[in-house]
Design goal:
Blueprint lengths: L1 H32 L1 H19 L8 H26 L6 H7 L4 H31 L7 H26 L5 H28 L8 H21 L7
Length: 237
């Protein structure tokens, strides 16, 4: 019984191991260059500064403005990293070598998605404290649920963005096509995340954001599963 169970889970273990190898490769490349991370981080911080100086505190409360600012910045700064995901493979047709390697297509997609998730998480880890500093938001009591919202939203955004990055990378207008394809699918995730963040920053009980968290979790399950299964059909042998 034990050997049969082990064989049953072996394909899953192979996919996860291959995904980690792909993610580690992408993270190592980004760690050496840091070009995409610094671009996304500068974009996020610059967006915070622009929104801050355009904000009239006598007209709009900080707790009402901050959630929208936060998720607009995350959405567009994340797109910078998502475009880089398969862009690094376009030079010298490196993607052909990756597809020819003894790694399943699903593992390639999951590896790219994991690297992108870490990338987006790193930007969030700096941008959220900066948001609290600019808008004088007391995040101490809501830090844990806010982190949960950020992680759930990032998973959905990364899953969709990674798939469309793979589809758009070989086109002439990849920088334009990726936002056009991905943004409509980002809308339900951003709405759920911003609504949950708004209630949280307004001092509402954490239990009131439970429905939004469940919605984000449902989006993540659907998008991660659908995008992982769809990725093999977006690449050629």
């Amino acid at each position: 019984m034990q050997p049969l169970t082990a064989r049953r889970w072996q394909p899953v273990a192979d996919i996860l191991f291959g995904a980690w190898l792909i993610a580690r490769k992408d993270l190592a490349i980004e760690f050496r260059t840091r070009s995409a991370f610094l671009s996304a981080l500068v974009f996020a911080l610059l967006g915070l500064v622009i929104f801050y100086y355009a904000w009239d505190p006598t007209a709009v409360a900080a707790t009402d403005l901050a959630p929208g600012v936060l998720w607009v910045i995350f959405t567009f700064s994340g797109l910078l990293g998502l475009h880089r995901s398969f862009g690094v493979e376009s030079a010298d047709h490196a993607i052909d070598g990756l597809l020819a390697s003894p790694v399943s297509r699903e593992a390639i997609f999951l590896g790219k998605a994991i690297a992108n998730l870490i990338f987006v998480g790193a930007v969030q880890a700096i941008a959220i404290p900066a948001l609290a500093l600019f808008y004088n938001l007391p995040l101490g009591d809501v830090a844990a649920p806010l982190v949960a919202i950020a992680i759930l939203a990032a998973i959905g955004l990364v899953a969709v963005g990674t798939l469309f990055s793979a589809m758009a990378v070989n086109t002439r207008l990849a920088e334009l096509l990726l936002p056009m394809l991905a943004l409509p699918f980002f809308v339900p995730i951003v709405i759920a995340a911003s609504q949950a963040t708004s209630k949280l920053l307004s001092g509402r009980p954490v239990v009131e954001i439970g429905a939004w968290l469940k919605l984000l979790l449902a989006f993540d399950i659907v998008f991660v599963t659908a995008c992982t299964l769809a990725y093999p059909f977006t690449v050629e042998d």
